[in-house]
Amino acid sequence: MDPRIQYVKTSDGVNIAYATAGEGKCLIVAPSPPISHVQRQWDLFSDLYHGLAQRFRAVWYDSRGSGLSDRSAIDFSMQAMLRDLEAVADRAGGGQFGLYAMYDGVPSAIAYAASRSENISHLILADGWTRFSDMDRKSAMEIEAALRHQDWTLYTETLARVLIGYDDPIFAVAFGEFIRDCVEPDALRAAYSKQESGAWDIPDLLDRVKAPTLVVHNRANRFISTESGQRLAAGIPNAQFRVIDDMTFANMPQMIDNFIAETVSTEKQTPGLPSGTALILFADIVDSTALTERLGDATFRAKARELDGALRAAIRERGGTPVEGKLLGDGVLAVFTSARQAIEAALACGRAGEDTALPLHLGLHAGDVIREENNVYGGAVNVASRIAGLSAAGEVLVSETVRSLARTSAGVTFEDRGEQAMKGVGEAVRVWAVREGRAD
After folding, report:
1. Given 2.60.40.1570, 3.40.50.1820, 2.160.10.10, 3.40.50.980, which CATH number is that of 4-268?
2. What radius of gyration, in Å, describes the C-alpha atoms of the chain?
3. Bridge-partner residues for 431, per DSSP?
4. Which homologous superfamily is 276-436 in?
5. In sequence order, what are the residues at sequence separation of 6 or more whose Cβ sits closer than 8 angstroms to the Cβ of residue 213?
6. pLDDT for 141-165, tens place per residue?
């Protein structure tokens, strides 16, 4: 079984090489920029990659500036790293997928998971960091930095044998050769310089990761201590943490397989989207077509994804369930069992839209919904969407039904907007605007 190597173009025109092998649930392996080479990794780290391909449809790729990807593109900004991951995920992810990252691939994996939570079913992070200062083994860092600008062969062999700490001398030599195949010296220096500047620091994104997460850390890691791994796990809601002694990650395929099986089993026992009566929140960006034309497609998409993550976090924090089948642009749809929480979430979503300069139409209705797979349907959903369409930028409108449920508990006031005829709705619906603060 050999991997199939293909190419995908990023939104800024860079050709990214990616490989696939195996069948079943998709697991994307993010590289540790700029040390990656999709073909050489399959051969050198055979226990890891062959093991993943035996259990999943494994997808791994080379970041720009490395491996079989465009070696002339040496923009190693976080935005560039996310463009690489987004391109591969959109092409090969197949909807929801697991995401596995090691070392310097962890920051971009966290950033992606925080902004594109609807795409990530599980997140696995190994020997990672969230700010460069987590590299708290000072002596190793000083040696690496000093050698980085000296003899290239001496640097790569020292990195493999001494600094990373591979005990097998034959493997250490092979790993030094692997680094030289992965990247040119100037590209590696550019990537590490970007990391050292703090451009990849993402500690503020940890609490926005919603996928079940496993954090593992090697006891023998000579750059990042176990305490750093513990801080990473502590920052992600409900993340599991394990200490390992497995520098080649040979046992990771089985560990990942077990983790996914355990969490899927737990999720099946947890109530999901409701059938029956629910509070329905619908949010949509105001005049998204004009914004796309003004900002450009790539900028608009990046801002919309950031907002999408913020909205889903606001919804979950207030007891709601975002419907993963709905993405921003088509609308963010969520269901609640409490009118008060639904209104609080809608107001928080409005503030998030203002913060990102992407104002929202927001509407709430209550009624019966039908659950099918990971989506909800029914006339009540259509009414919520129509109510949202009536709202001004950043305004929350609710139906009479929602007002009746919330008027004594939500801590807000309501302004009557009268009976409103709605396309596709047989009878006019009385609509109210939400105003923060109680009436005097």
Report:
1. 3.40.50.1820
2. 24
3. 399
4. Nucleotide cyclase, GGDEF domain (3.30.70.1230)
5. 122, 123, 124, 125, 233, 236, 238, 239, 240
6. 677 777 787 788 888 877 766 656 5
* pTM, entire model: 0.61
3-state secondary structure of 285: strand
Give dist(CA 227, CA 231) in Å, integer. 6
Q: Considering only CA atoms, which of 184, 168, 177, 158 is closest in space to residue 43?
A: 177
Whether the link from the prior residue into 359 is cis, omega within 30° of 0, is no
Amino acid type, 319: G
Q: Which residues have CB under 8 Å from 434's CB, separation 6+? A: 343, 346, 347, 395, 396, 397, 398, 410, 412, 413, 414
Q: Strands 360-372 and 276-285: what pairing?
A: antiparallel
Cβ contacts of residue 74 below 8 Å, gap of 6+?
64, 65, 186, 187, 190, 191
To the nearest 5 percent, what fractions of the chain are helix, strand and coil?
Answer: 45, 25, 30
Contact 289, 324 (CB under 8 A): no
